[in-house]
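Colleagues,

For the teaching module next term, I've prepared a clean inverse folding example: a structure given as tokens, and then the sequence designed for it. I'd like students to try predicting residues themselves before seeing the answer, so please don't circulate the second half yet.
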């Protein structure tokens, strides 16, 4: 157990709402994200593993990954190699985790990505990873020990079989709801996503609600919250941090 804890302390992670500016591929530099990421990586040329959110959506994965790669390259990072992991891969993901410096957990549909992570046993295998992890949207949500997969697609909020709480990777206990800048205006199946759906689900839960540009930086056994954020707990919604401010979690 002590060895596992020491290994976890070697891992660093950035759990973002989105690594990019809304409606753009360019990396969001708000709240010191680029500077902190470069410091955590400690090098300019990075061996990188990009894990898809939908292992069968090859074209979508190729598009998302190329935009992500381009955005980071424009701020001075270089990837060699940049490996995309989905069902086109036939090797065990552990082989890549043993070699790369950076793992990117893609954005997408949370339950679909969660199922893929379970299929490749990522929760178990990533525990010994000693590099840097970036979670993007769904990737951030699935990084939690217990994932809150709020309904996203039409019909999910009224489907009695839809599972809202899933087993995640266990990198953090924080249940993040990303994209508050969009979700605060969103309705699904006639219900407001935050005020009705998430609020009803928040009893005995703590949901950390982030607009794009906010992130959790986990390192050295601690977590820091950078940027504007809100806490939804037991149906009570309150602001917990502002941009350009850092708090320990």
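(Answer key — instructors only)
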């Amino acid at each position: 157990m002590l060895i596992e804890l020491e290994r976890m302390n070697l891992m660093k992670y950035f759990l973002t709402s989105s690594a990019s500016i809304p409606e753009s591929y360019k990396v969001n530099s708000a709240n010191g994200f680029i500077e902190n990421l470069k410091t955590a990586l400690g090098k300019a040329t990075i061996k990188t593993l990009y894990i898809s959110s939908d292992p069968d959506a090859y074209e979508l994965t190729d598009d998302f990954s190329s935009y992500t790669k381009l955005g980071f390259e424009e701020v001075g990072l270089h990837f060699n190699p940049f490996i995309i992991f989905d069902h086109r891969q036939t090797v065990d993901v552990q082989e890549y985790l043993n070699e790369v410096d950076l793992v990117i957990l893609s954005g997408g549909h949370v339950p679909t990505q969660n199922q893929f992570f379970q299929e490749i046993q990522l929760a178990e295998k990533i525990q010994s990873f000693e590099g840097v992890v970036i979670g993007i949207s769904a990737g951030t949500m699935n990084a939690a020990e217990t994932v809150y997969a709020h309904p996203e697609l039409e019909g999910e909020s009224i489907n009695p079989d839809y599972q809202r709480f899933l087993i995640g990777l266990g990198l953090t206990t924080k249940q993040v709801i990303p994209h508050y800048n969009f979700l605060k205006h969103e309705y699904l199946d006639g219900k407001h996503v935050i005020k009705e759906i998430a609020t009803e689900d928040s009893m005995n839960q703590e949901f950390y609600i982030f607009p794009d540009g906010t992130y959790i930086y986990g390192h050295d056994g601690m977590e820091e919250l950078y940027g504007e954020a809100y806490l939804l707990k037991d149906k009570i919604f309150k602001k917990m941090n502002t941009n350009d401010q850092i708090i320990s979690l």
